[in-house]
Design brief:
With 403 residues, this protein is an alpha/beta fold. The chain is built from twelve helices and 16 strands. It has three domains: 184 residues, Aldolase class I (TIM Barrel, Alpha-Beta Barrel); 85 residues, Phosphoribosyl-AMP cyclohydrolase (Ubiquitin-like (UB roll), Roll); 89 residues, MazG-like (Helix Hairpins). The protein is 37% helix and 20% strand. β9, α5 and β10 form a beta-alpha-beta unit. α1 packs across α2. The longest helix has 22 residues.
Length: 403
Amino acid sequence: MSVKSFYPTLYFNANGLFSDKECEHNYGSENNDPVTIAERFEEAGADGIIFYDISKDDISHERFINDLRKITKQTDIDILAGGHINRLEDVKKYLYAGVFICVIDKGSKDSLTGEDIFESACERFGVEKIALKEENGSIVLQDGIIKNTESEDVIIETLNEPLTVGITGTDISDTSFDFYKWKSECLKKNIDVNMFVPSVDFSEFICNDQGLIPVIVQDHKTDEVLMLAWMNEDSFKKTIETGMMTYFSRSRNELWVKGETSGHFQYVRSMSLDCDNDTLLAKVKQVGAACHTGNRSCFYRELFSKKGSAKNPFKVFSELMDVINDRKDNPKEGSYTTYLFEQGIDKILKKCGEEAAEVIIAAKNPDPEEIKYELADFIYHAMVLMSLKGVTWEDVVRELANR
């Protein structure tokens, strides 16, 4: 049985984002930032967001593309987007902006019909990256249909249809829509949805005398340990129901939602139980600092470490990129990296080409040490190019994950 998903739909024009095409329901200028709205839906439990550009001019369309880039960089939610598609180049713009699926309007009256663009786009970019919007507002994906519903009354009925993989509609596109409540209703009706369902009941956890179990909290992207807190059964269930990390305060003897006073919320991405059933490990999306001191992690005071300790590969890349970015922003005399930035993009591209050729030559040598050395050289020069063009490792990893 496929997992059924909830997708709010938002329309963009020169005045901002709206929850329906006629723009009758404005989100309000003070809260109309696309990234803020996308984060709000992600935090509320939406599985993805559908954006349509209904603007009429190229300047507004470019603004929309830039907004999509910001959204895909700053959120983890799947983004589907369409509108203003007249040629294959427009499809490529959406996909390069980080959009998960590009939606082509079947009823397009442009130089090519929507169906012609759809077929060409599927051939060029892959059928899994392209969807077709029907006249009734439903979206045909490779593996099913996202149905457009008119009201909450038909949500369960629509999701029960065999070909339906998700739903959208005016009600679902309102920020007041309770995604977690509806997902709970779906589970009661044996409809599989993207919601946390523990594989082990809390009654099987080994808690202390107060009925509490410790929770180690990590950043879901970097695995950085952020804090340690405690949960009881009520806070555990609340976390599952809301998607927000909820703990039990031993000092106040009450439940507390992390971030309810500071705004530094934690949104749960996964939770694991250790081999003895007496410790939880939560991976979260952390907003702001996890520590009350303002530090990102509560474990910011190093007591000791051994030189040469093995490091997380992603951390090595991140630290090296920090050094490269610093050389770009704060040139240092005698630095090779500074020299490359001073020479400009042509020199950097030339070095990337030379190092790529060295990798090819080294690959013909049976000694693996040579190719390791040459690959390291190539990756370094590629990172200088990344820094120059404003591309991060997170951007690259996200692109790989989407393929």
